[in-house]
C-alpha cells in the first residue's frame, strides 16, 4: 500500500511539472483585430513571469503566473479593478476578478467568462520556448 501511495505521489508531481513546462511559450488570440493582427499576444516565461501585448495598449502588461488544477492564473498589479474604467482600454482578457484565468487544454487556453470557460477568442500556442 505504501508503494502505491508513493508511486501515485510521484506520478502526480511529475505530471504537474510536465504541465508547467509545456505551458511555456507564446499564445495568440484566435480573434483578430485590424486584419490579421491577434487581439492579444501572451508570452509565458519559464521564470513564472508573463507579458501581454495588445495592439491598442502601448505598454506591455507584465506579472507572474502559476498553474493550479489545469488553470493558468495570471496575476499583475495592472489588473486591479481600480485601474479598469469605462474610459480606458481593457487590460484584462478574462472575467475573473483581479487576475486572468485560463483553462489549459492541450495547446489552447480557454478564457474564463461569467459562465465558466469559453472557446470564444481562446488563445492558441504558436511558439514554444526552451528552458
Question: Could you walk me through the main structural features you see in this protein, from its secondary elements to its overall organization?
Answer:
It comes from Marivirga lumbricoides. This is Lipoprotein. Helices cover 17% and strands 47% of the residues. By secondary structure, the protein is an alpha+beta fold. It has an eight-stranded antiparallel β-barrel. The longest helix is centred in the N-terminal third of the chain and has 22 residues, at 2-23. The N and C termini lie far apart (36 Å). The mean pLDDT is 78.
SS-based class: alpha+beta
* The CATH class: Mainly Beta
In percent terms, what proportion of residues is strand? over 45%
Distance between the termini: 36 Å
Q: What is the share of helical residues?
A: 10-25%
Order of helices and strands: HEEEEEEEEEE
Q: What is the CA-atom radius of gyration, in angstroms?
A: 16 Å
What would you say the CATH architecture is? Answer: Beta Barrel
Strand order of the largest sheet: 1-4-5-6-7-8-9-10
Average pLDDT number: 78
Low-confidence stretches: none
Outline: globular
**Quick one: biggest sheet?**
8 strands, antiparallel, barrel
Count of helices? 1
What's the β-strand tally? 10
Amino acid at each position: 500500500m505504501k508503494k502505491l501511495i508513493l508511486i501515485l505521489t510521484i506520478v502526480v508531481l511529475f505530471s504537474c511539472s510536465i504541465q508547467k513546462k509545456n505551458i511555456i511559450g507564446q499564445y495568440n488570440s484566435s480573434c483578430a483585430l485590424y486584419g490579421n493582427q491577434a487581439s492579444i499576444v501572451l508570452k509565458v516565461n519559464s521564470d513564472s513571469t508573463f507579458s501581454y501585448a495588445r495592439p491598442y495598449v502601448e505598454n506591455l502588461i507584465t506579472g507572474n503566473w502559476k498553474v493550479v488544477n489545469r488553470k493558468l492564473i495570471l496575476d499583475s498589479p495592472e489588473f486591479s479593478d481600480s485601474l479598469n474604467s469605462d474610459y480606458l482600454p481593457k487590460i484584462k482578457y478574462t472575467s475573473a476578478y483581479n487576475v486572468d484565468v485560463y483553462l489549459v487544454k492541450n495547446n489552447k487556453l480557454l478564457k474564463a467568462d461569467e459562465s465558466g470557460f469559453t472557446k470564444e477568442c481562446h488563445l492558441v500556442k504558436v511558439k514554444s520556448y526552451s528552458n
